[in-house]
Design brief:
This protein is an alpha+beta fold and 182 residues long. It is built from seven helices and four strands; from the N terminus they run H-H-H-H-H-H-E-H-E-E-E. A four-stranded mixed sheet has the order 1-4-3-2, with helices on one face.
C-alpha cells in the first residue's frame, strides 16, 4: 500500500511529466508551487558547493538526488546530473537531464522580460545566475526591493544594463496571486 510519501512523489512525477509534455504557464506554476512546498526545499542551495564536495559522478547523482524534488527546475542541478550520467556512460538519463536543464532555463526566460514591471520569476537565488550566465551577462551588483506583492532582485550588469528577478519563495502571495497570509 502506498503511503503519503509515495503519493507525494507520484504527484511530483505527474506535475513534472505534465510540464515536460506541455511546458507553459499553467503547468509551470503548478510544479513551482509544489517545489516551494517540498520538504527540504532551499532557495539558497548552491549546486556549486555540492559539486565541490561530491568527488565522483555517482556522488554527484546521490547528493543532488537526495535534494529532489527541492532541486527540480534548477538549471544547474539538471546540467550537473547530465554531466554525471554522461561520465558514467548512461546517455539515456544524461539526455533527459540535458532536456530538463534546458526546460528549466526556458521556464525562467519565459516567465518575464527581466524588467522591473515584468521580472523573471525564480525558485532559487542560483537560478538568477544560471540565466545571467546563459545570456552571457555578468552581474556587478545586486539590490533587493520589496513591496506588499513581491520581493525583487535587481542586478546591475557589466554592460550597464539591469535585470530583474522575482523571488518566488519570498512572495507574500502564492503563484496564482492569492494572499498567503489568509
Amino acid at each position: 500500500m502506498a503511503g503519503p510519501e509515495d503519493r507525494q512523489q507520484e504527484t511530483f512525477g505527474d506535475l513534472a511529466e505534465a510540464f515536460v509534455r506541455a511546458p507553459g504557464p499553467a503547468t509551470l506554476e503548478r510544479l513551482q508551487a509544489a517545489i516551494l512546498r517540498a520538504p527540504g526545499f532551499d532557495p539558497l542551495v548552491s549546486v556549486g558547493a555540492i559539486l565541490a564536495t561530491a568527488r565522483t559522478p555517482r556522488a554527484v547523482l546521490d547528493e543532488l538526488g537526495a535534494r529532489m524534488p527541492g532541486l527540480l527546475l534548477s538549471p544547474s542541478a539538471h546540467a550537473a546530473q547530465a554531466r554525471a550520467f554522461a561520465e558514467l556512460g548512461e546517455e539515456g538519463p544524461a539526455g533527459i537531464e540535458r532536456r530538463m536543464a534546458q526546460l528549466a532555463l526556458e521556464a525562467v526566460r519565459g516567465s518575464g522580460e527581466g524588467t522591473e514591471q515584468s521580472p523573471y520569476r525564480v525558485l532559487r537565488l542560483e537560478d538568477e545566475y544560471d540565466l545571467l550566465a546563459a545570456e552571457g551577462r555578468r552581474s556587478t551588483g545586486q539590490t533587493e526591493h520589496s513591496d506588499d506583492r513581491r520581493v525583487l532582485d535587481e542586478h546591475s550588469l557589466a554592460d550597464d544594463g539591469r535585470m530583474w528577478f522575482e523571488l518566488l519563495w519570498r512572495s507574500p502571495t502564492d503563484l496564482s496571486g492569492r494572499s498567503l497570509s489568509g
